[in-house]
Amino acid sequence: MTTNVDQLEINKFSELAHRWWDPTSEFRPLHEINPLRLEWINSLAPLAGKNVIDIGCGGGVLTEAMARKGAKVTGIDLSKKALKVADLHSLESGIEVRYKLISAEEMAAQEPGQFDVVTCMEMLEHVPDPASVVRAAAALVKPGGKVFFSTLNRNLKSYLFAVVGAEYVLRMLPRGTHDYGKFITPAELSQFVRSAGLQVDSLKGLTYNPLTKFYSLNNDTDVNYMVACSKPL
């Protein structure tokens, strides 16, 4: 099976893997938004007792947080270094998570329809074919299950905020973290979702205030946004 992966992207995050759980590192924004997105997911798909898969889990920040909510969680990624960090952290924290070095497409072929909830956060803008990942997520979820995506909108504002502002001015992220050309509009992602046999339930924006240095959930999807989907019965 052809792997839908950009090796340069894998290398980029692998080099930073040892800093994944450092809340003052390049991954600080990830730690700061994690409680917001976790509670949003949990409000729409209560995680306790659910079988969950986190696609593109990286070092396992969201993955482990969902397991703390009582879910049985599998985290998949194609970065060996990130998964080693995730696995080590779960051993240290005592939170049980199953991690696998596998692509979303390969996982969908192995375990179709096995998950109540599928999450894929901050990953679609880092692969050559995001629609393929959406199809894999749709294949992994059970009928009646929920799928969650987050990514970056593509417009002038998102370029100024997510690339120029975050990477060059505020230096919240390493330079080169994002490729503006790979950003995905809500309309494009909604089309991927519907083509994969899912329905769009809701969109939610995630914004950062550089003065207060706080993130908040709202209806502003101009830059960072999340999509909740469901698979019809």
UniProtKB/TrEMBL annotation:
<feature type="binding site">
    <location>
        <position position="56"/>
    </location>
    <ligand>
        <name>S-adenosyl-L-methionine</name>
    </ligand>
</feature>
<dbReference type="InterPro" id="IPR010233">
    <property type="entry name" value="UbiG_MeTrfase"/>
</dbReference>
<keyword id="KW-0808">Transferase</keyword>
<dbReference type="InterPro" id="IPR029063">
    <property type="entry name" value="SAM-dependent_MTases_sf"/>
</dbReference>
<dbReference type="GO" id="GO:0102208">
    <property type="term" value="F:2-polyprenyl-6-hydroxyphenol methylase activity"/>
</dbReference>
<comment type="function">
    <text>O-methyltransferase that catalyzes the 2 O-methylation steps in the ubiquinone biosynthetic pathway.</text>
</comment>
<dbReference type="GO" id="GO:0032259">
    <property type="term" value="P:methylation"/>
</dbReference>
<keyword id="KW-0831">Ubiquinone biosynthesis</keyword>
<keyword id="KW-0949">S-adenosyl-L-methionine</keyword>
<feature type="binding site">
    <location>
        <position position="37"/>
    </location>
    <ligand>
        <name>S-adenosyl-L-methionine</name>
    </ligand>
</feature>
<keyword id="KW-0489">Methyltransferase</keyword>
<feature type="binding site">
    <location>
        <position position="77"/>
    </location>
    <ligand>
        <name>S-adenosyl-L-methionine</name>
    </ligand>
</feature>
<dbReference type="Pfam" id="PF13489">
    <property type="entry name" value="Methyltransf_23"/>
</dbReference>
<dbReference type="GO" id="GO:0061542">
    <property type="term" value="F:3-demethylubiquinol 3-O-methyltransferase activity"/>
</dbReference>
<comment type="pathway">
    <text>Cofactor biosynthesis; ubiquinone biosynthesis.</text>
</comment>
<protein>
    <recommendedName>
        <fullName>Ubiquinone biosynthesis O-methyltransferase</fullName>
        <ecNumber>2.1.1.222</ecNumber>
        <ecNumber>2.1.1.64</ecNumber>
    </recommendedName>
</protein>
<comment type="similarity">
    <text>Belongs to the methyltransferase superfamily. UbiG/COQ3 family.</text>
</comment>
<feature type="binding site">
    <location>
        <position position="121"/>
    </location>
    <ligand>
        <name>S-adenosyl-L-methionine</name>
    </ligand>
</feature>
